[in-house]
Amino acid sequence: MIHAAVIGAGACGLALARGLWRQGLPVRVFERVAAPSSNGHGFLLLANGCESLRRLGCDPADNLGHPITSVRIVCCSGDVHADYPIDGAVALMRHRLLEALLRGAPPELVQYNHQFETFEWAGQKARAVRFQNGHSHEADAFIAADGVRSSCRLAMGCASTAQPGRVKEIVAHMQHPLLAAELGHRFLKVLDPSGGLAVGLVPLGDNRLIWFVQFDSERFATPRRAEVGAFLEAHFRHFPAVVRHVLGATDPSRAHLWHTVDADASSRWSRGNVALAGDAAHPLLPFTSQGVNTALEDAVLLSRLLKDCRDPGEVPELFAAYERERQPALLHCVEAGRQMARSFVQPAPSRLPLPLMA
Ligand SMILES: Cc1cc2nc3c(=O)[nH]c(=O)nc-3n(C[C@H](O)[C@H](O)[C@H](O)COP(=O)(O)OP(=O)(O)OC[C@H]3O[C@@H](n4cnc5c(N)ncnc54)[C@H](O)[C@@H]3O)c2cc1C
């Protein structure tokens, strides 16, 4: 039986741990923050993410998220650019997803206050993972799910190509019964056809919605925290009343300015018995809407591979197989995100970009 250690208790790390403990495999998750946090707003789980969740025994239809059945894309003049149905998607708060992944887990599963320091290597294999609090933990397999600025990735010898993303986001969620009811199950995106500005409104159920603003930081100077309200007021005057109303009704101090990261997928996804997963392996620009969905897919595949493994000596080959299976599609997603970002900042005259959401 393989003993696994997971670094990072985000969606990917917790999904992987869930896949393992439900099969009876010994696993520990090590997370740098001191306690479970409700930080973050939310995301759209698409059909592939929902399917992954079901495989982990969490049904998204089971009071977890709000079904999203259509997307409408509108110009800021009000003209409808596209309106189409989508299948099997739900919008949900990040903390609800993390709670669902933890439901039923053994209490000792996640060790908080464990910030990764390094791996202790014995040749090409890691013997243990060491943390900044002085603790270390031995395992047969290590999975690094420590997010877009992964320290584990650096410790595996993979240089980071991370650059600040040109398109940044401001995200918030709010109670708004009237508008939430009007949106129903529709995700609404409003774009400036000249490029560089967009707003998305996503109903969450329970009278709430998430909004997110995307802006080209080379055209619109990134606001400091105290300037977010003025930024929204100045740059979204020409957007429809519903957008101005939502932005104006939000306490700007509760909005999160998201400094996106533009990075290549890791040059390698594993070294011996250490594998990268989720954003640590393939940071995606938010345009793809695939960050959380592909992280859940990674977790499902890794847990399936590890479940069937009896001999720790097989782990490096399993991780190589995981990389071979996942990397081609993810390289495509990284490039698709960049292409969407390019057409967002400079749309072709005949074509509006159709990015989805944060
Ligand atoms: C606080 C937070 C809020 C977010 N909010 C949103 C949102 O509103 N909308 C959206 O679309 N996406 C959001 N994201 C990003 C989104 O969750 C990820 O892109 C996606 O789910 C992939 O998940 P992941 O598990 O690979 O990475 P992440 O979700 O980034 O999880 C990585 C985890 O690793 C931990 N970690 C990092 N470094 C270390 C270290 N050195 N040692 C130990 N632990 C470490 C982090 O604290 C985090 O818990 C958020 C991410 C975070 C961390």
The run of helices and strands is: EHEEHEEHEEEEEHEEHEEEHHEEEEHH
Question: Mean pLDDT, nearest integer?
Answer: 93
CATH architecture tag of the domain at 4-46 and 94-162 and 264-340:
3-Layer(bba) Sandwich
The CATH class label of the domain at 4-46 and 94-162 and 264-340 is Alpha Beta
The strand count comes to 19
Attached small molecules: flavin-adenine dinucleotide
Strand order of the largest sheet: 3-5-4-13-14-15-12-16
Low-confidence stretches: none
- How is the CATH topology of the domain at 4-46 and 94-162 and 264-340 named? FAD/NAD(P)-binding domain
Described by its quaternary structure, the protein is: single chain
Instruction: Count up the helices.
Output: 9
Helix/strand class: alpha/beta
Rg calculated over all Cα atoms = 21 Å
Shape: globular
Corresponding CATH superfamily of the domain at 4-46 and 94-162 and 264-340 = FAD/NAD(P)-binding domain
Distance between the termini: 39 Å
- Helix coverage percent of residues? 25-40%
The biggest beta sheet, please?
8 strands, mixed
Keywords: Monooxygenase, Oxidoreductase
Pfam family, one: FAD_binding_3
InterPro entries: FAD-bd, FAD-dep_Monooxygenase_BioMet, FAD/NAD-bd_sf
Protein name: NAD(P)/FAD-dependent oxidoreductase
